[in-house]
Amino acid sequence: MQFLKLVLRNALRHRLRTALTLLGLVVAILSFGLLQTVVDAWYAGAAGAAPTRLVTRNAVSLTFPLPLSYRDRIRAVDGVRAVSHATWFAGIYQDPKNFFPQFAIEPRTYFAMYPEYLVALQEFTTFLRDRKGAVIGRKLAGTYHLNVGDVLPLRGTIYPGTWEFTVRAIYDGIDAKTDTSQMFFHWEYLNETMKKRSRSYADQVGVYLVDVTDIDRVAEVSRAIDVAFKNSLAETLTETERAFQIGFVKQTEALVIAIRIVSYVVIVIILAVMANTMAMTARERLSEYATLKVLGFSPVYIAALIVGESVAIAAIGAVIGIATTFPVSDWFAAKVGTLFPVFKVSGETVILQILCALGVGVASAVVPGRRAATVKIVEGLRAIG
Amino acid sequence: MPIPVSYSIRNLWARKYTTALTAGGMALVVFVFAAVMMLDAGLKKTLVATGHPDNILVTRRSSGTEIQSGVARAQAAIIESQPEIAIGPGGAQMASKEVVVLITQPKRGTGVPTNVTVRGVGAQGLALRPQVRVISGRMFRPGSTEITVGRSIAERFDGTGIGEQLRFGGRHWTVVGVFDAGGSAFDSEVWGDGEQMIQAFRRTAFSSVAARLADPSQFDALKRRLESDPRLTLDVKRERTFYEEQSQVMSNFISYLGLTLSVIFSVGAMIGAMITMYAAVATRTSEIGALRALGFQRRSILVAFLAEALVLGLVGWIVGLAFASAMQLVQISTMNWQSFSELAFRFTLTSEIVGKSLVFALVMGLVGGFLPAVRAARLKIVDALRAA
C-alpha cells in the first residue's frame, strides 16, 4: 500500500511531463491497435471461410472462366454434397472508387451453401421471382443508403454496358466476421444477356463452389475434381475456400508486411518517448534515491519504485488508448466504406496492446532503475538533477 | 544581441542520451513519412515510365484494364488503318494488336501462386516500346511458342530461366530470353507472339491495340473520330495516361495510410521533443536567469531554445532520410489491385520528398519546442536566479 502510494505520488510530481508521456502512449497504443485491425481486416475473408467448402477455378488463372457443363460433372464426384457457382462481375457503381464485390450466382444452391448469410424468407422469395433482382449486404446497404426496392445501376467492365438491378433483399451476417458488403444477382440474367450480345461469353461461370460431405475427405475430393478435368480445354485448380482467400492476401503480402513493420516501429517510438521520460525522472531524483538508501531501503526496492512508476504510467496509457481504439476504428471503418468488408477490433488486438504497454513500461525503466539501484550514496547525495 | 547557436548545440551535446532518444524518435517518424512517399513515387514512376508519350492504347469502353478489355479483329483493323498512325520502316503501320491474359505462376522461394501478366504482341510490339532491351538470350521468334520474360519475372518466379518451359493455354512455351524494360511495368510481364497466344487461349478478340502517332498533337482528333465511330465501342487513351490510371487505387491507399500514420507518429515525436525541451528548461532555470541578468532579451532566449528544438528536428531528418534513402535498394512486388496482376517497383527518392520531409522534421521540432521555449522566455530573472 505504502509502495503504491509512493509510486503514484512520484508519477504525479511532474504533472505536465506525465500528461505528455501519457498522451504519447495513448497515441501509440491507439495507432498500434488500428494497424493490427487493418491487418486483421486483410485476412477477414480467410477467417470467415468454412473448412468443408472448396473453390474450383480455371487452372490458368482466376480471370479465365469455366464451362457450365462442369457443374454436373463436379456433382458426380464422390464425396461432393452440393455444387454452386459464382461469377465475378466487376461492375462500377457511380465511381470506380465505390468498390464492392458483385457476384452472379445460382441463388438456391448458393444461399443453401452459405448459411452465414441470413435473408428474410419473404424478401428471398421476391428476389427469386425477379430476374433483375439483387441481394445486398447490410453494410453495403448502409454505405450507399440503399433500401429494398431501390434501383442499383452498374457499369460493366468485363460485361459491357449498363446493367440495372433492383434491390430485392438485404442479407445480414450470422456474426461480426461475416462479410456483408457484397452484392449477389441472378447468373441466369447475366447469361441470357450475354447470349444475345456475344456468344463466347455464354454458358461460362467464374468459379464453382463445392461443399464436401466430410471434412476428412476435403483433400481427396479436391484432387478428384482436378483429375476429372485433366487435359481438357479448361483444366481446374481446386483448393479450400480458405486457401483461395489467403491466395489474395499472399499476393499483396508486401503491403501487409510493411504495415506490420510500421506497427513495430510504433512500439519503438513509444519506447523512446517513455524511456526518455523515465531517464529524466531518475536523473532528477538521484539524490532522493541516495537518501532512501541512507534510510535503509534496499536497492531492489528503489529499482521497483522506478519500474512501478513507469508501469503505472504505461497502464493508464493503455487503458485510455484501448478505450479510444474502438470509436476511432469505427470512424475509420465508416471512412473506408466497403474496402474492408469486416473491420472489427479483436480481443487478440486488445491483449497485444496491453502487452506492448506493459513491455514498454518495464523496458524503459530498466536502465534508470539499474542506475538508481547501484548509485553510490555519496555520489547520489552530491548529484544535482 | 542574439545568443550564439553554438550554445544551443552544446546544450544538446551535454545530454547525449536524451538528445539521441528524442532525435531517434523523430528520425523514425521521418523515415516512415519518407518511405511511404517513396513507395508511392516508385509505383507512379514505374507505371508512368511504361507509357510512351507518342503512343496510344485502345481498349474496350469502360473496361479499365487490358485484362478485362476485348477488341475484335475487325475493330483492330479499323484502328490500324487510321491516318494518324505512324508508318514504320518497310511501310507497316506502327500498331500492335495485343492479347493480355493472366496466368498463375509460383513465386521462387515461397511458392506463392501469383498472377502474372502474359502479353502477346504483334510484329510492331517491340518497335513501339523502345525502352525494352534484351539483356540475356534473345527475343522470341514471331509465330513460334517462344517467350521472353521481363527482368522482375526472371528474378522472382520459378521456371523462368532461359531454356525452361512454362505451361499455359494448353501448350508449353520455351523461355528464350530476358528483357529489361527500364524499370517500367513491362519488367513484370511475359511476352510472346500475339497470334500464337490468341489461339492458345481460344480467344476471338484481342485485348487492346497499341499504336504510335505520327504527330502526337493529332491525338484529340483521332480520339474523337474513333470514339464516335458507331462500329466501335472503345476508349482511346494516351498510353501514359492509361498506365497512370492503373496506379490510382494503390496510390490512394498508400498515400492515405501514409498520411494517417505520419500524423499519428508525429504527435508522438512532438510529445517526445516537448518533454525533452521542458526538462531542458527546468534543469537550466538558473542558467536562463544568468543569461537574462547579462542583458540577453526574452526574445533571444526564445530563439535559443527554438534553435535547440530545430536542431533536434534537423538531426532526426538527417538520420531518418539516410535510412530512407537506403530503402532505394529494396524492390517491392505486390499485386496491383487494379490490374489484378503482379507488379514490382522500387522505393524512389525524389527531391520533392527530401524537401517535404525536411519541412516535416523542422515543423515537428518547432511545434515540440515552442511551448517550452515560451516558458523559458517568460521566466522572471529573480525567480530564475533563485532556483537551485
Characterization of the model:
The complex is a heterodimer of chains A (385) and B (388). By secondary structure, chain A is α+β, with helices and mostly antiparallel strands. Helix content of chain A is 56%, strand content 16%. In chain A, strands 1, 3, 4, 5, 6, 7, 8, 9, 11 and 12 form a 10-stranded mixed sheet that branches. Chain A has a two-stranded antiparallel ribbon with strand order 2-10. Chain A is elongated. The model of chain A has no long low-confidence stretch (mean pLDDT 89). With 388 residues, chain B is of the alpha+beta class. In chain B, a hairpin with a 6-residue loop joins β3 and β4. The relative contact order of chain B is 0.20. The model of chain B has no long low-confidence stretch (mean pLDDT 91). The chains are: A alpha+beta (385), B alpha+beta (388). At the A-B interface, α2, α10 and α11 of A face α2, β3, β4, α8 and β13 of B.
